[in-house]
Amino acid sequence: MFKFYANCILVKGANRSTICDLQRNKFHFIPNSIIRLLQGDLIDSTTILKKLDEEDKILFDEYIEYLLERELIFECETELIEHFPTLSIEWDFPSHVSNAIFDAENELLFFNQTLIEQLEILCCNYFQIRFYKKTTNVEIERILQLVMPSQIKGIDLIIAADVENDNFESWLIDLVNKNRKIRCLTIHSAEKNEKLQGENFGFGTILKVKEAVQNTSHCGAIHHSYFSLNIETFTESQHYNTCLNRKISIDTEGNIKNCPSMAKSYGNIKDTKLIDVVNNPDFQKVWHIKKDEITKCKDCEFRHICTDCRAYIENPEDQYSAPLKCGYNPYTCEWEEWSTNPLKQKAIEYYGMQELVKKQTQ
């Protein structure tokens, strides 16, 4: 008898499955033909081999060897199985909100001490600020002066490149190194893709990207490079939406939303408190849209390590429709360019993404 390690969890897809190793942060493919022979996370090799012909026995033995070599399974006597319980997939987080997104053109006028105090009431530890246009050194430093003495643990900044300023990059490096709460600073509209500074225990990363982040239409991209393979994401995905759960956002006009890209607003930061929005049951509805309920996603072997998007979906009239910007087909196991898919063109027009798609395909 063989048993999967508790941190190695099977996720069945339409055409193949994955074994998610949540300790090593890796996944491995496994054929559905093998999955059908299993008893949950147990492999009764003696019983299975009796049902197979000689050729299939050879293949089965090869898979067992593969799983053993990668320490995904271990041999276990039947009477000892109860001593190796499965990993709990419960999820919770000790705050009203875990993260936030704030959008700005070149100034974040609503970002002040009052907003910091509201975030602290929510126990929000992390947030991201996106500047669509060039901002000033003074504005960035003003924001950081508010953040540094607060309980906020980390921030991400996305700012536009200033190619006319010869000292721009050196100033940013110095800024990040002085302000240890900056997890990642991304410079968009840059001349090339480049890493200016590597991370230091998860903080202090500085990246340059050629893509111009000019509005909310850049949200929602689904790609294997964005997979998040860890216990936190995997367990949250079992119960909640991994993009919107415990998230709050404020767009460039000060409107409070689940995500800046979404149309529905729950008031304006000028006259509405964040805690009142978070406690609104209607605001929390999208938190509970999990991948096992979404069209196409529920058949995908990557669904519990992948992000999601409810702002841009293939069928705008169906909240359980697949993310528009996903090019993966779980039925053929192939990735394709989502923007050229003829079945997505109606939704692309609905969201007014023609220019964005045009730039991506040039």
Strand content: 15-25%
Nearest-integer average pLDDT: 95
SSE string, helix = H, strand = E? EEEEHEHHEEHEHEHEEEHEEHHEEHH
Give the proportion of residues in helices. Answer: 10-25%
Main beta-sheet strand count, sense and barrel state: 8 strands, mixed
The secondary-structure class comes to alpha/beta
**Low-pLDDT runs:** none
Overall 3D shape? globular
Distance between the termini: 55 Å
> How many β-strand runs?
16
| Spatial strand order of the main sheet | 11-12-10-9-8-7-13-14
Radius of gyration: 23 Å
Number of helices: 11
If you had to describe this structure to a student in words, what would you say it looks like?
With about 350 residues, the chain is α/β, with parallel strands linked by helices. The protein contains eleven helices and 16 strands. The chain has an eight-stranded mixed β-sheet. About 30% of the residues are buried.
Helices and strands, with pairings:
Layout lengths: L1 E3 L3 E5 L4 E5 L4 E5 L1 H4 L6 E2 L1 H7 L2 H16 L3 E3 L23 E6 L8 H9 L4 E6 L5 H11 L6 E7 L7 H11 L3 E7 L5 E4 L7 E4 L22 H9 L7 E4 L5 E2 L16 H5 L2 H4 L43 E2 L4 E2 L9 H6 L3 H8 L1
Parallel strand pairs: 7-8, 7-13, 8-9, 9-10, 10-12
Antiparallel strand pairs: 1-5, 1-6, 2-3, 3-4, 11-12, 13-14, 15-16
